[in-house]
Design goal:
The structure is a homodimer.
Chain A (H helix, E strand, L loop, with lengths): L1 H17 L12 H15 L4 H14 L4 H25 L3 E2 L2 E2 L1 H8 L5 H28 L5 H28 L9 H27 L4 H28 L2 H4 L5 H4 L5 H9 L2 H12 L5 H14 L1 H22 L4 H16 L3
Antiparallel strand pairs in A: 1-2
Helix pairs in contact in A: 1-3, 1-4, 3-4, 3-8, 4-6, 5-6, 7-8, 8-9, 9-15, 9-16, 15-16
Chain lengths: ~350, ~350
């Protein structure tokens, strides 16, 4: 996104340099140290840097500048995000990510002399270690960012709290994938979204920017709420793309959420709006993880007829209006408000 | 250990209270929040609290008191240790720990409606999340300990660096378990021990105590070296108990290290001292993971005859002397020096 690319470049620059430094202690511990630095460099640089860029935009809109210390904090957040993805990919048994092999699947390749099952186990185990190490590298960069200690401590406090919620939401998400769609309460899914996506991917970066620029608690609270709204738009749009998005544009197969058994708000909303006649068909498609073109077409036509798509679009408009209202309250230059508005708009208009 | 029990009790007291607070935000996020608080309470309270207690002893010997903030830091370290064990148990596929089921095996039980393999996968996945969450809970307690921000930042910096080394050493340990004993360099094992055990379990707690009491870098460095020596004694003694220890006393089956394919310094030292005649027999016992009483007895007799046990005992005496020398240099009351000496002595005399 144009509005964020200037920040993305600064983060990439830091990560590139950080993971290329020969003086990095971690490279000199053992054979795995050198290797993990290389893996984190390649993996983190391929990310979209949404969270780190939002963090820097938030910092800059309050203090009119971004220091090297701020860039370190944003980069640390991107490393944490990479670690979360490494662990998630083990849990979801995904073999590809960011256009390449997942980290645990790269490690699996090392053990080619063992049986397939043993190799996979050791690959997963090294992947668990790599994720853990990423968390610690990130907190280390944060603690050595040369910002004021009070600021570092506030960020450690905010991040550690929100990240523990991300973990709990991930547990809930895993749980949902093992139960019937009928047994899931839409409010529980909404709560899961709030902590797994909204608070983590939007509120946390925006709030961190406010902490870095010394804003008061009232502003931090407004940004938390703005982030929750933006995150909801983002996640439900993501659901829509995961169900009806074109493979050409999203890079994911059409109906991939169905195939993976994901219980998204989008699907639950369709079921919610559907009358008795269509209900069984929707449940069957979901239960059988049927992502055939005809099933997707049927689901789309039921979703339209039932009014589910209209309801979701109305929700998009309502939540978007709430975002615009909160953005207008912020004590920042109009140019930054305009950027935040464009980002909000992009979230629901994007096709990938 | 008598010398540490006064500190252990304070940590247990904090953990008991912390994980019983209804006001704990984490309990109110979702069904997993309440559950994880309960699991961490039970699991962490069953630990020996060696690391937390050493941390408080180190704090007290410099500043003659231990504050509630210091106890929070020690408790945070114990929670991190629990998290490392949760992840280790997944990697080692261990089903019991601290006299009960491992955490991932407790989660596996929840998925009894799934196939055995699927249930185990989801159990492991929730275990990965639980370990991650423990790290974040610990950093949250640390950041909210109400100590000076400079102190908190220094501790975050020290811990995050050392913990990334622990992860790398764990990767090396996993790797060793998949290769032949002949292909392992004893220096690589010694390095693995240094970061997985010595620095983490001894240097880090001692150094944290020095940071909490505002000691200078020279003292912190002496404690780092003292911890490395104490840790080496601890780990090689652990190897000895894992190989020749009595099940009645250690709670682990005799020869359990052999059975698990662990490549300990103790075993490598035996192989190193053994002449051609016995070499093949030792390698066979190790390769076949043969922990039968007769194999253990043979190994012990070869170890004695070859001089390996004498060499290890000489090493114990040398390293112990180095510890005593460093302890005598510390600018603390003689009573605390005496405690450290007793702890060092206990490490190599213990039978469990």
């Amino acid at each position: 996104m144009k509005e964020l690319s200037v920040y993305t470049d600064r983060i990439k620059n830091f990560l590139e340099n950080y993971f290329s430094r020969d003086s990095l202690n971690i490279s000199n511990i053992n054979r795995w140290g050198m290797d993990i630095v290389e893996k984190f460099k390649n993996f983190s640089l391929k990310g979209k840097m949404l969270r780190g860029a939002l963090l820097l935009l938030s910092t800059e809109m309050f203090k009119k500048m971004v220091t090297p210390g701020d860039v370190k904090v944003a980069s640390a957040l991107e490393i944490i995000h990479s670690s979360l993805l490494i662990h998630d990919d083990i849990m979801d048994r995904d073999l590809t990510r960011r256009g390449g092999k997942t980290i645990h699947s790269q490690y699996t390749d090392i053990f080619k002399d063992l049986s397939k099952q043993e190799a996979y186990h050791f690959g997963e185990s090294l992947g668990i270690c790599a994720g853990d190490i990423g968390f610690f590298i990130a907190f280390n960069i944060l603690s050595e960012s040369e910002l004021a200690s009070e600021i570092i401590t506030s960020i450690v406090s905010l991040w550690s709290e929100e990240l523990s919620y991300v973990g709990l939401a991930q547990m809930e998400d895993l749980w949902f994938s093992t139960v019937n769609i009928d047994d899931i309460d839409i409010n529980d899914v909404a709560k899961m979204y709030r902590f797994k996506t909204s608070r983590y991917s939007f509120s946390l970066p925006l709030m961190t920017g406010a902490i870095l620029s010394g804003q008061n608690e009232r502003i931090v609270e407004v940004l938390k709420n703005l982030g929750e709204d933006m995150g909801l738009l983002f996640q439900v749009k993501d659901d829509e793309l995961g169900l009806f998005g074109s493979e050409y544009k999203t890079g994911k197969p059409v109906g991939s959420d169905l195939k993976e058994g994901k219980k998204t708000i989008y699907i639950i909303q369709i079921l919610h709006n559907t009358d008795k006649r269509d209900r069984e068909e929707v449940i069957n498609i979901v239960r059988n993880r049927d992502s055939s073109p005809s099933a997707i077409a049927r689901l789309k036509s039921i979703a339209k007829r039932s009014g589910a798509i209209d309801d979701i679009n109305t929700m998009f408009e309502d939540v978007k209006a709430k975002c615009m209202e909160k953005i207008s309250q912020l004590p920042v230059d109009p140019a930054y408000k305009e950027r935040l508005r464009k980002i909000t708009d992009f979230i629901i208009k994007r096709e990938l």
